[in-house]
Every structure is written in C-alpha cells, then in structure tokens.
Amino acid sequence: MPGLTSATVGRCFQTLDLPQAEVILYPAFFSAPEADRLLRELRDTTAWRQESITLYGKTIEVPRRTAWYGDEGTRYIYSGITNVPLPWTPALMEVKRAVEPPAGVAFNSVLLNRYRTGQDSVSWHADDEPEFGEQPVIASVSFGGTRTFQFKHKERKGLKASVELTHGSLLIMRGGTQANWLHRVPKTTKPVEERLNLTFRAIVAPAQ
Ligand SMILES: O=C(O)CCC(=O)C(=O)O
Ligand SMILES: [Mn+2]
After folding, report:
1. CA 65 – CA 168 distance, rounded (Å)
2. N or C end of the chain, less CB within 10 A?
C-alpha cells in the first residue's frame, strides 16, 4: 500500500461490505522485514504434510501442503480424519500473540496451508464445523506470493466478492461469515511465489 508509514502500517484496515458477514482486512499487518523473517521461519520449522481425502470411494491428494498446531487437548475432525495438533512453535506463538488483540479472542489452534505454485489451491468451503461454535472468529495471516481470496454467498446466487491477500496481511472473519458465505483460493496460471497461510481458530466444543 503506497503512502503507509511504519508507524501506521499494522493498524491500517478496511472492512469488506458483505451482507450477513463481518470481514476486516489489514493489508500490511506485519511490516515487510517481519513478514520476510516469519515466512522463512514458518516454512522451515513447520512439519508439512500431504493430506489425502476420500470422496465417493476415490482417494485424492489435496492440492497443497498442510499442518495443524494447537493446545494440547484440542482435536479437529476434518473429512472424517481426527487431527491431533502438534505443539506450538515459537514462530506460530509470535503470530498468534500478534493477531489475538485485533481479533479479540484467544485462539487455541491453527491450520497452516502451503501453496507451492499457482496450481495449489483450496476449493469452496466454509469453516462452519460445530467445534468452532456458532459465530467463529478466524484470523487468517498470509506470507509470500499474493493470492486471490474469493467469497460467494451460500444462498444468494451472484453475490460475490474477492480480496488480494498480500505478504504480511491479516484477514479477520467473524459474525455470520462462515454461516452465510463460502470462500476459496482458486488456482492461477499467473506466475506466483510460494505462499503460506495460517488460519487461527478457537475450538470451543471437543470433537465427538
Ligand atoms: O489460504 C487461504 O487464504 C485460506 C485457507 C482456508 O480457507 C482454510 O484453511 O480454511
Ligand atoms: Mn477456510
């Protein structure tokens, strides 16, 4: 963002105008040097995994690398798989402590996604699993190449929005966002740097 000084960089935000949702974007939440350091540290200290999902009897690899970290005792069921989180690393703790004040909640887990190229992606979904509670607050932090993050309303066809998630940005989703909207990061044929995304979540109900 041109014109931002180091004194204002982290605090500058915009609210997206989406009905039945609350979405706030801090385009430069982390300064460029902080974001560069965290990108390297998170890339090198995370235990990246290749997950597979089984749909209609067919097993396919998800088009990205993932990792799940969190407090002991948090569990998350995703596509029928119970995920036990790894213990927090110093870099993850640092990012968690930075995003909790603007989010206004204490997070107890984080899902990491690593998009190696423009061919890595995440398809339409909402983070509306019961373990996140009624109106979950999710803080999404991005490092590396800029990718487009798209929203579409679950019922009102044609109601769409998109934002560019830049290096060091923070996107907060709260209120009815997960109940009423889907989101995705589509594939792109444009050349793009590797990207890491961290979605901090508060698991309020234990997985059954
Ligand atoms: O990579 C992103 O920006 C979003 C990832 C996401 O939606 C998720 O992990 O639930
Ligand atoms: Mn999501």
Report:
1. 20
2. C
If one residue of 114, 169, 192, 197 were mutated to test the ligand 1 pocket, choosing by the most ligand atoms within 8 A of its CB, it would be: 197
List of domains in the chain? 12-201 (2.60.120.590)
Instruction: Work out the angle between the directed axes of helices 32-45 and 90-103 (0-180°, nearest 10).
Output: 130
Name the residue with tokens 């870099």: 91
Amino acid (1-letter code) at residue 39: L
Tell me the pLDDT tens digit for each residue of 56-83: 999 999 999 999 999 998 887 766 667 7
Pocket flag, ligand 1, residue 127 (CB < 6 Å): yes
Kindly state if the Cβ of 199 falls inside 6 Å of ligand 1.
yes
How far, in Å, from the CA of 123 to the mean position of ligand 2? 9
Structure tokens at 82: 């119970």
Q: What's the order of all strands across the beta sheet hosting 122-125?
A: 122-125, 181-185, 147-153, 160-165
Cβ 166 under 6 angstroms from ligand 1: no
* pLDDT tens-place string over residues 138-178: 999 999 999 999 999 999 999 999 999 999 999 999 999 99
What residues contact 68, with CB distance under 8 A and at least 6 apart?
Answer: 76, 83, 84, 85, 86, 109, 110, 111, 112
